[in-house]
Design a protein that fits this description.
Length: about 100
């Protein structure tokens, strides 16, 4: 069963491109803006890296090699490092705002 009629393929492609472009544009805006919004975008990429740990679970379940298992170690490691640094930056921002007397 198709999700939409075949004659809607062009409209679906345009909608997909529009949604992806808008999302990427908002992420760039958040990065340029800096502060907590930039950290949220960076943390999202860290979560995507950590999410690659599903290869470990699949390999354990299959008791065999899962395609992507070897590279997933690097992705998970980098994702964890990103999350650690984002956490440190968020704590530093919170301390700095408290020291300046700005509401958090």
């Amino acid at each position: 069963m198709d999700c939409f009629p075949e004659n809607w393929a062009d409209q679906a492609s345009v909608l997909l491109i529009t949604v992806v472009f808008a999302g990427v544009s908002l992420m760039f805006y958040a990065l340029i803006r800096g502060g907590t919004t930039a950290l949220i975008v960076i943390a999202l990429f860290g979560v995507l890296g950590v999410g690659e740990a599903h290869h470990w679970i699949e390999a354990i379940q299959k008791r065999a090699y899962d395609p992507g298992l070897i590279t997933s170690f690097a992705y998970v490691w980098v994702g964890v490092m990103i999350e650690i640094e984002v956490g440190r930056e968020l704590v530093a921002h919170r301390r700095q705002r408290r020291a300046l007397g700005v509401a958090a």
